[in-house]
Amino acid sequence: MSHPDPYTDEPRGWDRSERPVALPWPEQELEAGQWSRRPAAGPELYAEPRTRPYADPYPADPYDERGRTVRPDDRDRFDDRDAPPYFDDRDVPPRFDDDAGFPTAQLAPIGAEILADDDPVTEPEPPRGRRPRGRRRASLDRPATQQVGTGRAGRNLPAAIGVGLGLGALIVVPLAFYPLAFLPVIAAAIAVGIWEMARAVRRSGAHPPLVPLLAGGVLTIGLAWFAGPDALSLGLLVTVLGTMVWRLGDGPAGFQRDLTAATLIAVYVPFLGGFAALLAAAPDDGRLRILATLIAVVLSDTGGYAAGVSFGRHPMAPSISPKKSWEGFAGSVIAAALGSALLLWLMFEVAPWWGAVFGVAVSGAAVLGDLAESMIKRDLGVKDMSNLLPGHGGLMDRLDSILFAVPTAYLLLAIFVPVVG
Length: 421
Fold this sequence. Notes:
By secondary structure, this protein is an all-alpha fold. Among the domains are: 47-94, no CATH class; 176-281, no CATH class; 284-421, no CATH class. It has 9 helices and 2 strands, in the order H-H-H-H-H-H-E-E-H-H-H. It has helices at residues 157-177, 182-201, 210-227, 229-248, 255-280, 286-311, 326-347, 352-380, 396-416; strands at residues 315-317, 321-325. The protein has a two-stranded antiparallel ribbon. Helix 3 (210-227) runs antiparallel to helix 4, helix 3 runs parallel beside helix 5 and helix 6 packs across helix 8. The longest helix is centred in the C-terminal third of the chain and has 29 residues, at 352-380. The protein is globular, with a radius of gyration of 39 Å. Residues 27-55, 74-91 and 94-100 have low confidence and may be disordered.
């Protein structure tokens, strides 16, 4: 004996009656206009009285979005949030592609819009309410926001030029009127550079002590100004020892890592920056020495930027600084050599070819310093040391070339223009 069919009262097998079984969809002879998205009042449209008229005609996943097992007998006991999201009667009828409507009522799902051949295609209206986060739509009352343009080198040129002029005035004015006032400028720049470096290396997990680094950096600059090159080395030694003693109070965990980072910062920022104090503190012509060095660095940066933007085709160090090119390096060297030849001849009466040698050496050191900081930033995973200077990034992004240029300039000027007294 065959088992009874769960959907009918008749048994399975060949002895089943021939009468047709009621189907859950309308007959083909019905007009499309008789079916709307919401059922009219009256008897149910489906064979199963417990099924909602607008439920999904396709079989659903046995697991709903909340992880519960859904049986056919339990689906009508859930609220509207548990229904499958195949039909939304709040906006427009469902559209499965960009074509217009459905050709016949048999191919269209229940509640879909059936269009004739000559009916126009209308796009659904955009949803009302609050716009999602992003760019706002421009109108007559609220024009579109103008984005700040940047050059090919990725800088905001107006802000970069304004900040550069301000930094130049901060250097030139003390040197022109009272050279001793340039000492606080150097000390402040070194302190900011130490802070930016200590802040950046923390991304690698190192935590160098900031207080002894700041105190030792300022002390190193002062010793170099008033006591000369030997005191500069003494200041570096005191700074490293001070950070070591200070770091002992935090325990042995990570001591070697933190001390290595602190030593790197002490050598890179205050020790190299102390040569700027040595140049400026030279008797009689100290202001001219530091001005000649800084102007050579500015000429190198400007020439390299102009040549790189105009003619840059061959990358110089793509793994370290992709924007630097050999054409830009050639522009840096040429600009610094020509400018330094003229400056040293006017300032110190040095032969132009020796001034050109000075410019080439300073330009090469400046580019090397820029690449060194780019390698440090790439290793740390940062783009700029900080956002302190608009259009430039951090102060260390401007000091990187100067820190390598001032020791080179100090040694060459000691040969070309010996210090008297």
